[in-house]
Amino acid sequence: MKIKKVLSLFAISAFLLTSCSSDDNSPIRPEQKDQSEVSKESPVVGEYSFNHAGNPIPFVFEKNVITMKMSGMAGSGQGDDVYNVITTYKNSEGVLKTVAKNKETSEYKAFFFRDIKDDKSEFMFNMDLTAKSEIEAIKSAYPAKDIIVEHNKGQFGWLKLTKGAIVEPIALPVNGKYVFSQSGHTYYYNFTNEVVNFNGAYDMTVLAHNKNTNKILLQGKDESVKNNYYVIQLKNIVDDKVAIARLTFSTATAKADAEKEFASQEEIKASFTTYTKDNGTTNSAFANLKGTYGSTVILDPVTKLPLAQYVFKLVDNAEAFLFKADMGQGFGDQASFKLKTVATDEKAGQIIYEVTGSTGYYSGRTGQFLTVYVKDIAKDGSKATFAIATKDGGNSVAGSKGDIVGKTIEEAKAIKAPESDKVWKLDMMKYAHLWISTTRE
């Protein structure tokens, strides 16, 4: 499996890649003794991902094997590239080079590692060097830290890999009901981040979204279409209008064919039709509220290190409100509410949570109900402004503050949102009944 295959897959994410133009990055360096053998194993072990806007890309590092896990890329439709580790070297600048051979072909690669954190949580990774022999890979030049690359030469440069599988919440650029009418006939799509419905006839489960091509990979959800796969592409999204094209795949190879189309950078070969938002729809920007939203971090005025932050966690089965701070033992969670959504009023921007667990300063509120208001939700859900409302306008919901949140759902619903001029001022102690601007992590 050649690196060209990997290039085509990386193009899914429309990388902004460039190819080396300096003498320091020539494929083979002059004979010199600036590297030494350090082991016969990979310098890191574990599952890592390269995070980018379109599609996180997974890599698996074992002691003796490095796998470019292309099968783990949503919509790639391709198998993995597996390399057996031969030897790892280090140069005078501490950059590591692991020479490896493709498990299925005679191709060799030199993988480069630098800036590996002490806990191995992240590092910079370069996989550009492909060689015809082991000695060629051993003698290959170490890529410059500021290498300039371009995609037409099959190079990707230094990629930041982070430990663990990255699962980005899907946030489609449109949500709600979009309608097209012609000659007395009306058709519509109803978009959410999880399911797209066509004309009320059937649902399609959203499997993946590529932010660069605005292609959506879907699978039939209803019994009548469960074996079908679909690719929808969106373009010309302006105000309340969007142009939509769709391909349906229903043969024995439907899944592979749909994934191939989803992975392609080419525009869908189908007619685009302009649909208009039905403003009567009950869907709203609430559908885009998924993930972990953090406030501005309060910094220590002397050390400039993180001191405190408020976090709203809107993740299925793991909703929470967190107070993070450094109380002398490092920056981390100091108090929290574990939450469960029990009611929403999207028109009012209100979410009612049952407190299912409370720790730290918030202890004692388990079983009570928290009233949260949300506004200024970005179209893609990347930003939002939250407020925890209190009965008396108090600025803390610590357990010691007494009767300031709802004891029942109805009581919580009756608590009003703070006025628009009530804004959080990076105060560790005053945060409730104030509007807190946040950004999704």
TrEMBL record:
The protein's name is: Lipoprotein
Q: Does the keyword Signal apply?
A: yes
Instruction: Return the PROSITE patterns for the record.
Output: PROKAR_LIPOPROTEIN (PS51257)
Which N-terminal stretch is annotated as signal sequence? 1-22
The source's superkingdom equals Bacteria
> Could you tell me the keywords of this UniProt record?
Signal
Q: What is the lineage of its organism?
A: Bacteria, Pseudomonadati, Bacteroidota, Flavobacteriia, Flavobacteriales
